[in-house]
Amino acid sequence: MKVRWLVDGVRAAAISPLDRGLLYGEGLFETILCGEGRPTLWSEHWRRLAEGCRRLGIALPAESLLRSEIACVAEGLPRAIVRITLCGGVAAERGYGARAETPTRIVCAWPAEPADPGPYRSGVRVRFCRLRLADRPELAGIKHLNRLEQVLARREWRDPRIAEGLLFDSSGALVAATAANVFIVEDGRLLTPALHRCGVAGTVRAFLIRHLPVEVARIPRERLLAAEEIFLSNAVQGIVPVCAVGRKRFRVGPCTRAAMRLLQAAEPLLQPRTDEGED
């Protein structure tokens, strides 16, 4: 797979081994599906990146600069996965208390194949992860660079038939999947886990909360398993129905289909058509 990248706007540049992103994990990233250089759900990505920079004290690059660099690395690609990474930069001194004036800006693009329609029609299988996410309210919601919890959780299974693993916090409440947010349908109502303790507030999640009556709630395991429908959302795959959690089966129902149609109308590249009616 041929990857294109810019570091501070320069092709084939290298990042300093003294960058605080490497030394301490200080930084943020956004992963975005793009078509012909146009990023999907850009306003949601930009808002989250700006909020993350505010909370970590990192200088936010100009929006026009990031848009031009996205267009550059994704040029000529009908479909690309683009990652923006803002590292803490190189400080004059070492140590936790040092600060860098300017972050290191990395923009990468990977060519992406068209989405397989199968999982969108029939749903995917997921499992419960053993790992529990640590509470860190100061970082909750933003997409900071430290993803070691997700890396360890994803290594818990190798079965290719299982698409995702569900993660809970220390209190036993559902937070997310390893690389997606989670929604459930309960008595015809759409719910998604609260993320004030830990977890990433995804861009598709933000889109759905703005356009649908979504209740943000505490969802323990028992409530999840009693749901009528479950689906996942992320910035590369859009909305994907869940057909099974372990041995418990779920239908791909009307609320899930309605959410998929809503996103497909707004971002057809992100949410492929399934041409199926409601159950």
What does this structure look like?
There is one protein chain. The protein is an alpha+beta fold. The chain folds into two domains: 4-111, Aminotransferase class 4, branched-chain amino acid transferase, N-terminal domain (D-amino Acid Aminotransferase, Chain A, domain 1, 2-Layer Sandwich); 118-266, Alpha-Beta Barrel (D-amino Acid Aminotransferase, Chain A, domain 2). The protein has eight helices and 15 strands. It has helices spanning 20-24, 42-56, 63-73, 118-122, 148-154, 203-211, 221-225, 254-266, and strands at residues 4-7, 10-11, 27-35, 38-39, 80-87, 104-111, 124-133, 162-169, 174-177, 181-186, 189-193, 214-217, 229-234, 238-245, 248-249. Strands 7, 8, 9, 10, 11, 12, 13, 14 and 15 form a nine-stranded mixed beta sheet that branches. A six-stranded antiparallel beta sheet has the order 2-1-6-5-3-4. Strand 13 (229-234) and strand 14 form a beta hairpin. The chain is globular and about 55 Å long. 38% of the residues are buried. The mean pLDDT is 96.
Summarize the structure.
With 279 residues, the protein is an alpha+beta fold. It is built from 8 helices and 15 strands.
Percent helix? 25-40%
Low-confidence stretches: none
Largest sheet: 9 strands, mixed
The total of beta strands comes to: 15
Output the number of helix runs: 8
**Gross CATH architecture of the largest domain:** Alpha-Beta Barrel
State the separation between the terminal residues, measured CA to CA.
39 Å
Mean of residue pLDDT values = 96
How many domains, in number, for the residues? 2
Structural class, by secondary structure, is: alpha+beta
**What gross morphology would you assign?**
globular
Strand content: 25-35%
